[in-house]
Amino acid sequence: MFKIGALASGGGTNLQAILDAVELGKINGEVVSVVSNKKDAFALERAKKHNVEAVYMSRKLFKSFDEYEDALISHFKSRNVDLIILAGFMVILSAKFTDAFKNKIMNIHPSLIPSFCGKGFYGLKVHEAVLEKGVKLTGATVHFVDSTADTGPIILQKAVEVKDGDTPEVLQKRVMEEAEWIIFPEAVRLFAEGKIVIDNNIVRRVD
Ligand code: GAR
After folding, report:
1. Whose C-alpha in 115, 152, 199, 201 is 20 to 30 A from the C-alpha of 103?
2. In a mutational test of the pocket of ligand 1, which residue from 119, 126, 169 has the highest number of ligand atoms less than 8 Å from its CB?
3. What is the C-alpha to C-alpha distance for residues 122 and 101, in angstroms, rounded to an integer?
């Protein structure tokens, strides 16, 4: 069985989309462990409701970031995960972690990469920047994770309209509903079925 591990920091609606897709049989696999760096992250509750292991592991519990990453690596290695999803995980992982699971980590980002991404662009801040710039189209991107923020090979993207009068919160909700909750489970499904390969940093479909 294809095993999925997850890292999440917040509400976990993207995690929910994956849990639902697994339950509906759309993803041929199982979520085996959800780890959060926030004790009260609702993502942990979502995991428990689906009888998935839910673990609180914060940087604060370790002497250094290095030891924190060591612990995360051994946690997921011991669960034999085939894929780790970053489902709203607000910690930037170093090369140590990304090399330990090379081409096996996927992130969802709430913009059309390479716009509005990289250090400092996360959560609502992305939508605030989009509205400030006045772009008319935004969207979401699923990509593999490498050692720098939001630069890994792009798997799927979906565009979403920016409307007059949008607030960051309204836009965030539309991007989630129209893009994130659709393309993230779809990217996981394709990967679990062996339908994507990385060729020279470019993701290609193999059917
Ligand atoms: C989502 O919009 C996700 O794309 C974003 O945080 C939100 C988490 O929501 N992630 C990033 O900004 C990563 N750079 P969720 O906890 O409800 O899935």
Report:
1. 115
2. 126
3. 22
Shortest-distance Cα residue to atom 9 of ligand 1: 88
In the predicted model, is pLDDT for residue 178 greater than 90?
yes
Spell out a b/e string for 94-131, using b for 16 or more CB atoms within 10 Å of the CB, else e: eeebbebbebbbbbbbbbbbebbbeeebbeeebbbbbb
Q: Is the CB–ligand 1 distance for residue 185 below 6 Å?
A: no
Distances (CA, A) of 206 to 85, 131, 155, 200: 21, 37, 12, 15
pTM: 0.97
Could you report the per-residue pLDDT of 138-166, keeping only the tens digit for each? 999 999 999 999 999 999 999 999 999 99
